[in-house]
Amino acid sequence: MKRVLTMLAALCLAVPVMAAELGDDGLHKADWMRETFKDLREDLDEANAEGKRLMILIEQRGCIYCERMHRDVFPLPVIDSYIRENFFVVQLDLYGAAELIDFDGEELSQRDAMRKWGMMFTPSILFMPQEVPEGKTAAQAAVAVMPGAFEAGTTLDLLTWVNEERYALDSEEDFQRYHARRIRERTVDLGD
């Protein structure tokens, strides 16, 4: 029976949800992304009101690694459902001209915010705490940053590590140890 359940779980993980479409801005648009006014303080308040974590997803037009994440990783049912249930996702464009308001109150273009935050790679994901100290930028306040594209297992493990607040200073298991343990415990190959 255990073998049958493992095989069923593997099949469910292998059947991806529909991949994201390209938007007019050339960025992939998953239906779990939120359309907001890009006032990050308001986005954080809304995420908290829904009992979710704010996740800032930074991408750029033509990014082959962004495409790979939207084609091979994000659509996996286990990851898609985990994002939907636990994260409030705001997409930003590495080179975007549209304005945003950072947590420190500065209003600037997305492109200028990316320079200010030191973002150079796409996709990059900033995971925000439930409260951002006054005067901090998104990059300064992030509890974790995923700089680049990773396989499904690493992505899922980082999502759970952040959601379970394992980054807290009193935690005895940093992400690398947590990820290594999760790889050993997995019953389904996620291509870590």
TrEMBL record:
UniProt keyword list: Signal
UniProt xrefs under Pfam families: Thioredoxin_2
Thioredoxin-like fold domain ranges (all copies): 48-131
Signal peptide positions (record): 1-19
Protein name: Thioredoxin-like fold domain-containing protein
Species of origin: Roseovarius gaetbuli
